[in-house]
Design a protein that fits this description.
Layout (H helix, E strand, L loop, with lengths): L53 E12 L12 E12 L4 E10 L6 E8 L5 E6 L4 E6 L17 E8 L4 E10 L5 E9 L5 E10 L6 E14 L4 H5 L3 H7 L9
Antiparallel strand pairs: 1-2, 1-11, 2-3, 3-4, 4-5, 5-6, 7-8, 8-9, 9-10, 10-11
Length: 254
């Protein structure tokens, strides 16, 4: 499901993100043989689909990693708080996100990133707003979850929970990503009965993007709103990226 598949947080989230793309072996995912986790049948309607074609949602994440990097700013063990403003446009098959990352090492260094995925281009724009630098990433390494919008059949149902005096309820699902994939570990997500995303969690490792990382990520979605105000703010690539693009091959940072 687009809002519930996971993206490697340090390369970008939304989420996000470290996910099994449409080309991966999703049939291999789920609960492995011998795993001491109960199989619970999902109640009717729990395997739902996002109700809106266009929406905006905020996401806050706490991330711990043994190694990461972005435009040379981070290296070694890191802890980061990540806040993102995300828009999903299923009508035009687009995703965009404004991300603020705060390095929790005492310096509280901030990094601001703009991510754009467009179906008309075979790459993803990853833009460092502080330094006005742009990268073109391969879509298979930046899976921004625009492809799916329903809870997948391979996700295992783990139960329902509520917050407060049953003022908010949600259904939780999980999947075990096997070790023979570039990203492996335990991924959980929860959605409300009307399929509004609530949380994502991941514990595991990834060898994507040419580096090895051990990741622990805990994320919560808030302020879901229908529609996208000022879509040009999210989906317009800055002029300096287009200008810099001319001097480099598509697969190199620009």
């Amino acid at each position: 499901m687009s809002a519930y598949n996971f993206l490697a947080a340090f390369v970008c989230v939304a989420a996000l993100s470290l996910v099994v793309s449409a080309d991966d072996h999703r049939g291999d995912m789920g609960r492995p043989m011998g795993m001491p986790l109960p199989e619970i049948e999902a109640p009717e309607g729990a395997r739902c689909c996002l109700p809106d074609d266009q929406f905006r949602v905020l996401k806050g994440s706490m991330v711990s990693s043994t190694r990461t990097g972005f435009f040379g700013k981070l290296s070694g063990p890191t802890k980061v708080f990540e806040y993102s403003d995300n828009v999903y446009d299923y009508t035009n098959n687009k995703f965009a996100s404004y991300i603020t990352r705060v390095l929790l090492d005492g310096s509280f260094y901030e990094e601001h990133v703009h991510v754009i995925e467009d179906p008309d281009e075979d790459f993803v724009w990853v833009i460092n707003l502080d330094e006005m630098k742009c990268m073109k990433g391969k879509k298979e390494e930046y899976p921004f979850r625009i492809g799916e919008r329903c809870v997948p059949d391979y996700a295992m149902y783990s139960g329902a929970f509520y917050l407060g005096k049953e003022e908010f309820t949600a259904n939780e699902f999980y999947q075990i990503i096997p070790e023979d994939m570039s990203t492996s570990g335990l991924f959980t997500f929860s959605v409300s009965p009307d399929c509004i995303p609530h949380s994502e969690n991941f514990v595991g490792k990834t060898d994507s993007w040419g580096m090895s990382q051990i990741l622990t990520v805990s994320s919560t979605f808030t302020n879901y709103t229908v529609g996208i105000d000022m879509p040009e703010r999210y989906f317009t690539v800055p002029d300096y990226c287009r200008y810099m693009e001319e001097s480099k091959p598509w697969w190199m940072p620009v």
